[in-house]
Amino acid sequence: xxxxxxxxxxxxxxxxxxxxxxxxxxxxxxxxxxxxxxxxxxxxxxxxxxxxxxxxxxxxxxxxxxxxxxxxxxxxxxxxxxxxxxxxxxxxxxxxxxxxxxxxxxxxxxxxxxxxxxxxxxxxxxxxxxxxxxxxxxxxxxxxxxxxxxxxxxxxxxxxxxxxxxxxxxxxxxxxxxxxxxxxxxxxxxxxxxxxxxxxxxxxxxxxxxxxxxxxxxxxxxxxxxxxxxxxxxxxxxxxxxxxxxxxxxxxxxxxxxxxxxxxxxxxxxxxxxxxxxx
Length: 279
What we know:
The protein has 279 residues and is of the alpha/beta class. It is built from 13 helices and 6 strands.
């Protein structure tokens, strides 16, 4: 019996180095995740965003960004390559569907993807796990969610982001009116995704979000909000709408936002990890 057992052990002893190697890699992975979360909490930033950049856009798609997407023109050459990679990955990951006989064009796909990737450009996880489908209507559409006409909506149950192309296009084309349908709806998806996740991006988001909520309880800030009336009234519908409107103001009027409400601006900047393009 001892001889048979010994023979059995010797037959499979080649596995031992691989097992040890696997355990070492697993330990290093766990250690890194712990360190990554500690680093993000202590310094309010990420260790890295992209490990490798290998996907790219076609020449036509890059031309669309250069000619029509202001944020892209603010990036450095290195940041542009990262942005292009993320857009290409986003496009590959989602299904774009036209409604009411709308023909979905490459321009629509690139610009919608660019808005989504712009909002998550400071994050490590940028593809919106709660979105599988992007439904595009020609204009405002009837929503079965509440029986009203909408310009856009995020439906987490169906994992769908729904947009009126007419209103989306106006939102991104006018870059300084703090009305941007794409940013607004993508921010809803981003916020709900953060609530349902425990990764480093979600934890950072939640910490800064709580700081914003606590700041809003300050009476001096309340008085200033009432006096200045800087944010449009719809922002105060609920916390989800406030964060969506805040993102619109942050992206489109960063200097003005920072001048009026510097602390809220700082929290929003940290929440999105926006350390580029002059923000």
